[in-house]
Design brief:
mainly alpha, elongated
């Protein structure tokens, strides 16, 4: 019984740190949020979600090396989390390391074949660098169906359906290229 009470008391400060970090993150005070998350992690070092949140906040605060370290700690806890690899890709992209970004986005796609965010990031890098980063045929079919649905929805908001069609053609070329 005493152990349970002590355990709850030990968790309260770290929970407050996490809650404060969440509030600061929501207020876009990323550096401050990261410090509260790190304080929480000193007490709860296996909190995967907070390692990712700390990395995200450090990334937004442009503290790239610290963000990378937070993501590496999260990778040690859960190397198969597709969102983590997506976030690592975003960090690499912000650091102008497109090769590492592409690799991370590909891993995210390998882990979650329906990650439209990872496919979209690959598309953006492909268009910007004029390189093609193909994805497996099975994922290409999934994205083609998703894109057609998205295009159909966006036609009502687009001023030019030709622009939408051209965009779809570019995406399709990137997705299906080998």
């Amino acid at each position: 019984m005493l152990d349970q009470i002590l355990s709850r008391l030990k968790r309260r400060p770290s929970s407050k740190d996490k809650d404060r970090g969440d509030k600061l993150r929501d207020d876009r005070l990323y550096s401050e949020a990261a410090e509260y998350y790190i304080s929480h992690l000193k007490k709860e070092p296996n909190d995967f979600d907070i390692w990712v949140q700390a990395g995200n906040c450090l990334k937004e605060a442009k503290s790239f090396e610290r963000a990378k370290a937070a993501y590496e700690a999260a990778l040690q806890l859960n190397p198969t989390n597709s969102d983590l690899h997506l976030q690592i890709g975003h960090l690499a992209k912000m650091m102008n390391d497109n090769a590492a970004a592409v690799e991370s986005y590909r891993v995210a796609l390998d882990l979650d074949g329906s990650s439209i965010a990872a496919a979209s990031e690959l598309e953006q890098i492909s268009i910007a660098s004029q390189e093609v980063f193909p994805i497996p045929q099975q994922q290409a079919v999934y994205f083609e169906v998703s894109l057609v649905k998205s295009i159909n929805l966006s036609k009502s908001y687009s001023t030019s359906s030709e622009d939408v069609g051209e965009h779809l053609a570019k995406i399709k070329d990137i997705l299906i290229s080998r």
